[in-house]
Amino acid sequence: MNKQFSVMAGAAVLAVAGFVGGSALNGAEAQGAQKAPVILIVDREQLVAQSAAGKTIPGQAEAVKATVEKELEAEAAKLQKDIENYQKNASLMSDEVRQKTEQELQVRQQYALPQRAQIMEQAFMAAIQNAQTQILNESRPILKEIVDARGATVLLDRSAVMYAAPETDITQEVLAALDKKMKSVEVEKISLAVIEKRLQEAAAAQAAAQNQ
Question: Taking the complete model, does pTM exceed 0.70, yes or no?
Fold first, then answer.
């Protein structure tokens, strides 16, 4: 009886082994039939910072910033001069004129000048971002060409990846092609007069839209 039991048990083990082996084989065949995703990585921050065009941004940005700061300093100096003139001549003014002048100077000092500084800072940052965006836009056809050539199914930015094998990173390849295509990029020159003109045009357009 023990011998018979041993034979039956052995047959059961073989049957189970055969079933497991067959299932594993079928699973491997199924996985082989499915195409594994091909993932590539690109560092867009490097495309901006290390490209030939991107390297032309800092110098231009410094020049634009210097111009902006000079204009704001001139506005501050003009305000200070007007305050000093008011202080010298206040005693000669009527109550109505003195009160009106005080209010105007207070508005300029507490609101107008800080607001202009904030607007200029925003315009300055926007000018830099626009230049950077131009570089990234020029890189898109290059990225598509490389992705198609390698049969990639996924392209990720380096900032979204914790680790990736070096061969998946195409940043240097993109940089080489980008430098041939784009040597420089222009940072828009901004000034207080231009910004104020744009604000006036935007306000006029908004008023016209509300009146329609």
Answer: yes
